[in-house]
Design goal:
Blueprint: H1 2-31, H2 39-46, H3 50-56, H4 60-74, H5 89-106, H6 108-118, H7 122-131, H8 133-143, H9 149-159, H10 161-170, H11 175-188
């Protein structure tokens, strides 16, 4: 009779170990980035042996997929679909940029490290293409409606995490001021 209980307990322990490994990797990805994170670092932070980590994640790709999945589950990128119904172009831009800049603010450390590593780490680039780029394409499509080519180019610049970081983190603007500035910049690029 104790066998089902033991199996459930073992499954719960395995699930908890897996969660600790993914949490540890996300923490490291937020501080040193995915390209600089290695299995020894993750195992140590999670409090497991490397062979335990490999039992749950046989390769770096499976771990990065689990990490990006956890981040998307906890705080998904904003959905562009509701913005399509906003008829006024400036209001649509304001609402969309407000939502995206809010996400950047909540996820600044992780986004900065991941997007930096996209430039030189093939696996990070692959996972970003899978998890982030569909959203960025939707933002360009939804917010780019009725924009001239120059305005679309400015929109691309204003959607960039690095533009947000420069305006908010480095220049000290608050989110509302940054959104207002971005909408004016896009509008004026016509």
């Amino acid at each position: 009779m104790s066998r089902p209980y033991t199996m459930k307990r073992r499954a719960d322990q395995q699930s908890e170990t897996r969660r600790r490994i993914v949490e540890a990797a996300v923490e490291l990805h937020s501080s040193v980035g995915p390209a600089r994170t290695n299995t020894s670092m993750v195992a140590e932070r999670a409090g497991v042996q490397r062979h335990t980590l490999y039992a749950h994640f046989p390769d770096e790709r499976s771990l990065l997929l689990a990490c990006s999945g956890l981040v998307a589950e906890r705080d998904p990128l904003p959905d562009a679909e509701p913005w399509r119904s906003i008829a006024d172009r400036r209001e649509r831009l304001r609402v969309g940029l407000q939502a995206l800049y809010g996400w950047y603010g909540r996820n600044a450390d992780l986004a900065g490290c991941v997007l930096r590593d996209v430039e030189h780490h093939a696996l990070t680039r692959e996972i970003a293409e899978l998890r982030i780029m569909p959203y960025m394409r939707a933002y360009n499509e939804s917010l780019g409606t009725d924009l001239s080519p120059g305005q679309r180019a400015m929109l691309g610049l204003m959607l960039s995490y690095f533009t947000w970081r420069t305006l908010v983190r480095e220049s000290g603007l608050d989110r509302d001021a940054t959104v207002t500035m971005a909408v004016h910049a896009i509008d004026g690029a016509g």
